[in-house]
Glycosyltransferase involved in cell wall biosynthesis (Bradyrhizobium ottawaense), 403 residues
Amino acid sequence: MRPLRLAVMLEQALEVGGGFQQPLNDVLWLRDWAAKSNNEIVVYSPYPKTQEILKEFGIKARLLKFGMLDYAFLFLKYCKPFDLVQLGLELKSPFERALIRDGIDVVHFTSTSKRHLLLYQLPFIITIFDGCHRDAPEFPEVRAFGEFERREILFGLGSMKAVLVLVNAPELVEDLSRRYAVERSRMVSIPFSPSIYVSSAGSTDSGADDAVLKKYRLERDYLFYPAQFWPHKNHLTLLSALARLREQGRTERLVLCGSDRGGREKIDAAIAAYGLAGQVTILGFVESSELAALYRGAAALVMPSYFGPTNLPPLEAWAVGTPVIYPEAFKAQAGDAAILFDYDDPDSLANAIISLRTEGTSLRLRKAGERRLQQLASETELGQQHFGQQMDRLKHRLALMPR
């Protein structure tokens, strides 16, 4: 049987943060899967920067951008009657025609992509990171200007039509099955893994870390929150908690990094209102290669995000031995490897930070983080094996069909 040729779409830009790092992890393990299973992967991205990054890992990616005709197809696809026209005329978008010319058998979207709407002939795999537009529809980033409706179309049609749906937690299997009637047999759960830039950094000598901290004029023992500045990232609760701690005579330093997605202005205003300018450092977007040093320099990762059920930063913190403070809503991911708090309650978060500073807590959390990371690594291996089994079945079925 000839090798299966799998297109792997790496569509997120580097500035997206975890939305880029996790698909990058996927590309790396899919490369290993293809080599072991006598299959092939072809990596595509619309960003030249991503091509350059992949070269560092020995992967040659092809540039595949959206053209105006693709956008026209996509617009018409949102209009239901166009499906009948496409069916009758057997129209294919330029995007799909390019993949067919490359001999692609299956298209693997490593994020929840709108491009699956352009596929008329090729079967596809879709990845769904979360269902947060349903979990927390009050946030404008998942509600305003048709974003909620757009996600419903992508999640609903994508998950029902995909030959395989990849998720990162069992909770998402339950949610998709309940919300969109997706068959469980077509879903595979593969937990997140730490960014390759963090996990491969290991126990880098302190001199290299010191250089990064010196660059940003940081002293060790700060609280660290790497997150884009969206409202759902909940920076304001963290700032309120710091203000309450200071009222108790406790001064904690905070380091934030990430791209501005419309929430930075309100955060700057809150820092000024609380009088926290001397305690808070905002780095903006930082290079991936610097993340490990920033994690290691921290007393803890503090992540009050409303969106889950899983997130990448706790894994990265555990990978370098940094304690984690995390919402109790996501206890299923954290287990006993984090101090948990109520993300709607600044006092709860302030108390969690106080707990961090009690004797023996940091050491306990480091050991628990190591164990939790090992557990998740075992679950990841099982999920990847399940993926391989599903792909073997799909490969057999596609061999029965005309090309």
Observations:
- The chain is about 45% helix and 15% strand.
- The first strand starts at residue 5 and ends at 9.
